Amino acid sequence: MTSSKILFFICLSFVAGVLLESLIKIPQVFIWGILFLGIIVVFASFFVKRISFVLGFCLLFLLIGILRVQVSEFSILNNKLSKFNGRGDVVLTGVISNEPDVRDTFQKIKVKIADSTVLIITKKYPEYNYLDKVKLTGSLETPSETEDFSYKNYLMKDGIYSVMNFPKVEVVSQKHEYDVFSYLYEKVLFLKQKIRQSIQNNFLPPQSSILEGTILGDNGAMTNDLKSKLNITGLRHVIAVSGTHVVILSSIIILALLAMGLWRGQAFYITIIFVCVYIVLTGLPPSGVRAGIMGGTFLLSQKFGRQSMSSRLIAIACSIMLLINPLLLIYDVGFQLSFLAVLGLIYLEPLIKNFIKLFTKKFKEKSVDNLIGIVSTTFAAQIFTLPIMVYNFGNISFVAPITNLLVLPIVYWLMIFGFLTSVAGIFSSALGWILSIPCWLLLTYFVKVIDFFSQPWAMKTIQNIHWFWLVVCYLVIVFITGYLNRKYKQNFV
Q1: Neighbours of 322 (CB within 10 A)
Q2: Percentage of the residues of the chain whose pLDDT score is greater than 70
Q3: Torsion over CA: 145, 149, 150, 154 (sign)
Q4: Are the C-beta atoms of residues 388 and 237 closer than 8 Å to each other?
Q5: Which residues contact 456 (CB under 8 A, 6 or more apart)?
Q6: In angstroms, rounded to a whole number, what is the distance separating the alpha carbons of residues 69 and 26?
Q7: Which is deepest, 15, 31, 189, 391, by most CB within 10 Å?
C-alpha cells in the first residue's frame, strides 16, 4: 500500500470520528476501548504479518476525530462571555473584528472581546469600521433556535455564542492598532468599498445588487424579492461566496482560458491566482476561505488527472479544515455543499461529458466542447448537492438546470467586464461608464432570465424532510455513479 493511500485512509478515519461524535456522543468507555484496540493492532502488526498496522492507525485517528469534537464542545461550554447570556444589561468594550454586514434597515457587526466574539445587531446608521474600538451597553442573549432553523448552531461554527440586539454603541477610539494581517485586511476592505461605490455609480438595482454579489460576494444590498427570485430559479449560488460557486466558476474559467489557446498548465496557475485574488477581495470571510480551499482542491485534482489522487486531495483538505474547526461538518451547509460539489465534478462530470459527446461527435468546434464542459459541470455539481439543499432549505427548483445553462456561460464575462468597469470607475467615471455598457447588457440578460423563470410553479417547497431520505438519496447517487464509473471505465475515464 502506497504512502498516499495510507494517508487517505487515515484522513477518512479522522473525518469518520468527527462525524460519529457530532451525531452520537461516544461514551468514555468506548473511547478507551478504541484507544487500547488501536495500540494493540499497531504493535501486533510487527509480529503477525496478516495484521496491517494501517488498521491500527485508522482506529487511533478515528479516536483523534472524536476527541477533537469533544475539545471544541468543552471550549464552547466554558466560554466565559456566554455565561452572562440572559442575565440583564452588561457593559463591554471590544474591537470590530470584521467588515460590518450592512442590510436595508440594520447592520450586523462582529465585536471581538478578549477571547470571545459577540454579534451585535444595530441600526444602519451611524456607520462603523473595521478595527473601531466600541463600548457596548445591552443584554447578551443566546442565539435563537426553532424547529426549522438553529441560529445558535449557525453562529456557533464561527465561534459566536452570544448576540446583542440593538445595544447602545459608543465609538471609544478610531485609532486602529495594526499587525501585518489587520493592516493588509483593512486595505482590502478599503478597495472593496471603492469597488462597491463604483458599481453603485454605474448601475441601478437590481443590476447593481447582482454585480456586487457576483464580484464581491456581497448580498446585503439585495432585496427580499430578488433573493426569492434567485431561489426559485436556482441561481442563488451565482451570487454568493460558496464552494459550489468557486468550483463551478473555476471550471468555467479554465474552459475559457483553454478556448483562448492557453495550455492546461498555464490555465491551472492563472485560475489558482484568480481564485486567491477573488477570495481576498471578498474580505476573506470564513465561507470564502473554505470555498477557496475546496475550489483549489478541485483544480489540483484536475491537474493530476486521476480520480484516486483527487479523492486523496479532497480527504486531506477536508481533514485539515475539520482539524481547525470540527463543527463545520454538521453545522456548515456551505462546507457540505463545497465538498459534495467537488466530488460531483470529479466522479460524475467526466461521465456526463462523455455521454453528451456520444451525441455530438459530428461537432468538432472548440466552442461546442466548451459548451459541453459547462453543461456537464453544471449537472454534476447540482446532482451531488441537490439532496443536501432540499434537506436544509426544503426547496426544489424545477427550472434550475435550464436557468443555469442560460446564465453560467455569461458568468465568466460578467466577472471580467464587472471587474474592468468597477476598477476603471474608481479612477474615471467616464471610462467606467463606457466599459459598463457590455456589463449592463449581460446583467440585463441575467435579470430577464430571472424574471421569466421565477414563476410560482417553478419551485416546490417540501417541509420536514427526515434525514433517512437524505441518506437514501446519497446511497443511490453513490451506487449509480460508482456503477457507471466501473462500467464505462475503458470508454469514459
Answers
A1: 23
A2: 88
A3: negative
A4: no
A5: none
A6: 11
A7: 15
33: CB partners within 8 A, 6+ apart? none
Query: Letter for the amino acid at 245?
Result: H
Residue 75 cell numbers, joined: 471550549
Residue-level pLDDT at 290: 66
Mark 347-384 as b/e (b = at least 16 C-beta within 10 Å).
bbbbbbbeebeeeeeeeeeeeebbbbbbbbbbbbbbbb
For residue 69, pLDDT beyond 90: yes
Fill in the DSSP letter of residue 78: T
Q: Which residue in 58, 73, 70 sits closest to 14, CA to CA?
A: 58
Between CA 291 and CA 97 the distance in angstroms is 21
**pLDDT per residue over 42-58, tens digit each?**
888 877 766 678 888 99
Answer whether 432's CB lies under 8 Å from 425's CB. yes
**Domain boundaries, given as residue ranges, for the chain:** 3-77, 82-173, 201-492
Distance between CA 266 and CA 279 in Å, rounded? 20
- pLDDT per residue as tens digits for the range 319-336: 988 998 999 898 888 788
The candidate with the shortest Cα–Cα distance to 417, out of 210, 206, 193, 147, is: 210
Q: How far is the C-alpha of 110 from the C-alpha of 124, rounded, in Å?
A: 14
CATH of domain 82-173: 2.40.50.140
Q: How many residues does the chain have?
A: 493
Long-range contacts of 482-489 (CB under 8 A, 24+ apart): 484/351, 485/307, 485/347, 485/351, 488/351, 488/354
Q: What average pLDDT is seen over the chain?
A: 83
Cell numbers describing residue 358: 456520444
